[in-house]
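Problem statement: downstream parser choked on a complex file, so we are re-checking the raw output for the S-adenosyl-L-homocysteine run. The parser issue turned out to be on our end (a line-ending mismatch), but while we're here, posting the original submission so the record is complete.
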Amino acid sequence: MTRATTQGEVYLVGAGPGDPELLTLKAVRLMQRADAVLYDRLVAPEILELIHSGAERIPVGKAAGRHTLPQEAISARLVELARAGYRVLRLKGGDPFIFGRGGEEVAELAAAGIPFQVIPGITAAQGCAAYAGIPLTHRDHAHSCRLLTGHPADDQTDTDWADLARSGQTLVFYMALGRLPEVCANLRRHGLPNHHPAAVVEQGTTRSQRVLIGSLETLPRRVAAEGIKPPALLIVGDTVRLHTQLHWFQCATPGQSAFSPLPESPDTPPQRAPLKHAGGTL
Ligand code: SAH
């Protein structure tokens, strides 16, 4: 980290759920111009490779329940570096404003008078749903989608389970593995049928992605039997059934990196009729 500008600033950037190709162009551009990058444990090495080589990389990794650097210390470091005139990029998994404590970090910056930008990322719910072939909304099955957390630290004793157990919606639980049996049991107790579809997506959008499909009754046992580990999401709703028909993403073959790009199209495209003559008007 060599340069210090007169006025430092902070970019709070979403790194997406895993696949480096899901980064926004803006995220990559800012990763190329930042002087220092503070990143979370969930950000893949393949994404860190896109950071400018001269930038200082500062891991501030957070695993569930184990905080390498307390939130206050991270915020204080951002303020300190920006005050020293550096362009600081705070890289967070998924989207910074979805279960990422991004709101707290920028509140500190705002209070300290540090200029900042917030760059959204594809949140785990979107990434996992798309790569697992599970639409989050669907005209026939789900008219809304709710993003929730199953983490005990975020426990709301006043969770309105009856409201969550209403049909016609998709529920996505982040950090739900630890409380999966409890979440599924609560939804059943409050009115969803035992056979209501549910899925767990582990390491979504990476080539290590695993998707387990079951019901509120069967899924907790399957997840335990398969040894599913974080990061993983629980998706509950009728659209889970569409996975069988809509799944498209191929996971890694042995020896392949979790982040290998999708197979390229052949260099010489097959001969096709010009598009405007094929199949009428678009
Ligand atoms: N800000 C992030 C969420 C951080 S909370 C976002 O918008 O996605 C961390 C939780 O996100 C994990 O415990 C897990 O539930 C979920 N998660 C993140 N990446 C994931 C992935 N690739 N596959 C499945 N779940 C993921």
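For whoever reads this later: The longest strand covers residues 9-14.
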